[in-house]
Amino acid sequence: MNEWKQAYRLAIFEMKASMRSFLLILVFYIAMSLIFMQSLDVHLEDEFNFFDLLFLLIFFMFPVWMKNKEFQMQKIDGDLWASPSIIMLQQLPVSKDIIVKSRFIIHSFCSFPFQLVLLIAMPIMSENFREAMTPVAYTAFVLIWLAFSIAIGFIMAASEAGGNYKLKAIVLSFIYLLIGFAVIYFLRPDDGFLQLTMMMAAEWSLLSIVLAVVVSIAGWKYWQADMRKMIKKADYL
Amino acid sequence: MPEWIEIKDVSKKIDGFQLGPVSLSIEPGTITALVGNNGSGKSTMLKMIMNLANPDSGEIRVLGKPVDGKDESWKRHVTFQPQNAVGWNAYTGEDLKRLIAPLYPKWDEAVFERMISLFDIPLNKRFGKLSPGVQQKLSLSLALPRSTDILILDEPTASLDIPSKNLFMDCLVEWMEQEDRAVILTTHETEDIRKLADYLFLMQGGKPLGHFEKDILAAGYRRFWLHEMPAGPLPGELSRTENQLVSDNPDATERYLSEHGSPVIDTKALELEEIISLLLK
Questions:
Q1: What is the pLDDT of residue B1?
Q2: If you measure CA to CA, which chain A residue comes closest to B52?
Q3: Interchain proximity A71–B90, CB inside 8 Å
Q4: Nearest CB to B82: which of A70, A91, A235?
Q5: pLDDT band, residue A1 (cuts 50/70/90)
Q6: For chain B, which domains are there?
Q7: Is there a contact between B44 and B19 (Cβ–Cβ < 8 Å)?
Q8: Do the Cβ atoms of B52 and A233 come within 8 Å?
Q9: What is the nearest CA distance from A24 to chain B, expressed in angstroms?
Q10: B270 CB burial (10 A radius; 0-12, 13-18, 19+)
Q11: Most buried residue, A61, A117, A123, B245, by most Cβ within 10 Å?
């Protein structure tokens, strides 16, 4: 508990240093996203299939881009890529566990409020969505997407530990990312991910809630352990 | 006396550059200067002490604790000031003090305020907006007040103007006198070494050349002016010109000259800079 308290202090410190730009970007992204969300009804009537991929991009990537560029992962020197804060904190009497926790708190600040706005906007902005969801189903739906946010989105928080990457490795990872997007696009269910999760939440509400909670806890713990391992392995030279 | 920092057979390969194996012990109450050519591995050594990089082999202990162990409490006793402060740009000097001070139980506010006033540092400007010299002054002003047992400085005076350099050296000497403390610093400035260092650890191309007590090293090299240069090589002879001879064993050289009836016109100890240049040649 004491570690979380210290991590919170460090996280708040960083957030304060970029609060004004963070709030501006947050408002801008929320406005953009809400304009985009107006087409949710069109998507639910099966007339805008690309909505699904755009939604995934907004849901997972906007929180990453919301961070001030001074704190984002960047090239530090030579082959070293990392978030500068990771290097700064390691030179201070702050344990690796606290560093990891502070990064997760910051990522939570950047992702959860924004993602909740998106999820809350859905029933407000779409009649089709409202009709398809009971209150319990909607709760399950929100938890499913928050579980995705942790299990997938927190890869970005963990990756801030960085490491030593040659140009070849960076190019390869971009190629893999593009292949990943292509695979997601071609293998996605006919109605899209969003409708699939709506269906899961409506048909198997309780099971979805339990699974979402389990995946959230597992993702939260796994990515923290992964980040600790990456910090230990990296050479911050 | 127990060692505060113990480096045992540490080696690391980085992109074809082989550092070490290096062994070095740092005792309390001493200032050790790591001296070497550019790219000789000095900064990498310091970062390995701080566990910012992993050695391929060997072990580093700080205050008896392995730096790569689970117990990271040793960090409370160490201040590290790198050549370039990474991650500080978004913060003002005031922010940085508020971040750093609570992490060190012996933070000395009076020292901080004195250094800020001596160096005339604006605390309300973002670190990234300060000139390299002012950035360095602020980093130093945030280093000494931590009052840790061990202070590790990577080229602390590289961007400082001459008056600031002298001010900092005075502050550091005063800081050392307060308690039993140990300092390791890397530097290319002979003035820093001459004024501050007790020991010199010389490195070249990643290999250690030796760990020397400064005064013994300085007394171990002399230049002789001779009427007539003897034909054969002399004991301790390092180099010779027409009537000058440099020796790293002055006693043996002098004895030889006196035994062979070669009068010495004059002798003079070599400057530390010359000795280091000779060793790093």
A1: 59
A2: A236
A3: yes
A4: A91
A5: low
A6: 5-216 (3.40.50.300), 220-280 (no CATH)
A7: yes
A8: no
A9: 17
A10: buried
A11: B245
